[in-house]
Design goal:
alpha+beta; Dna Ligase, domain 1; 157 residues; three-stranded antiparallel beta sheet; Arc Repressor Mutant, subunit A; binds zinc ion
Length: 157
């Protein structure tokens, strides 16, 4: 499979603007600040992290703006939602279509490591086909303990 290159920010900005316009929404300064923050935060982040970053770009961004913008950012494929079974979700800037990814989630500190696992995608398709089904989505999430958390647990009295 060819390796995909990250989409241009301007391309994503256009996609986001088009997406929200279709929903009858305007690309307000606040929404674009959230967009910019969502694009530039590194790794996995929470809605609160996003609020902090967006406010550093535009002080007038409210918590409500964040929560209303999140589904728009996910829907326009700017970011991806990662559910690790906690009360809050994590988000991750999308870098374009990639191979199937498996997630390793540290139970101690919620560190999320994503690894490409195209064989899993193949496996899902093969198993589904065997039952005359077509897969729509699938995920592989491994709960684990990172090196630091392993040490912390063994040192506990
Ligand atoms: Zn950990």
């Amino acid at each position: 499979m060819p390796k995909s290159t990250p989409p241009e920010t301007t391309e994503q900005s256009r996609a986001f603007r088009t997406y929200i316009a279709e929903k009858g929404l305007r690309a307000t300064r606040q929404r674009m600040a959230v967009f910019e923050a969502a694009r530039t935060l590194p790794g996995h982040y929470t809605a609160e992290d996003l609020l902090k970053k967006a406010r550093s770009l535009d002080r007038t961004v409210s918590r409500a703006t964040i929560y209303r913008a999140l589904p728009l950012l996910v829907g326009s494929a700017v970011i991806r939602e990662v559910d690790v079974g906690r009360d809050h979700k994590y988000y991750l800037a999308e870098v374009g279509p990639t191979n199937f990814r498996a997630q390793l989630v540290c139970e101690g500190c919620d560190t999320i490591v994503e690894v490409e696992a195209p064989f899993m995608e193949w496996y899902g398709k093969a198993v589904a086909a065997k039952h005359g089904m077509r897969p729509i989505s699938q995920k592989l999430q491994v709960t684990a303990l990172c090196d630091r958390c392993q040490k912390r647990r063994t040192h506990r009295p």
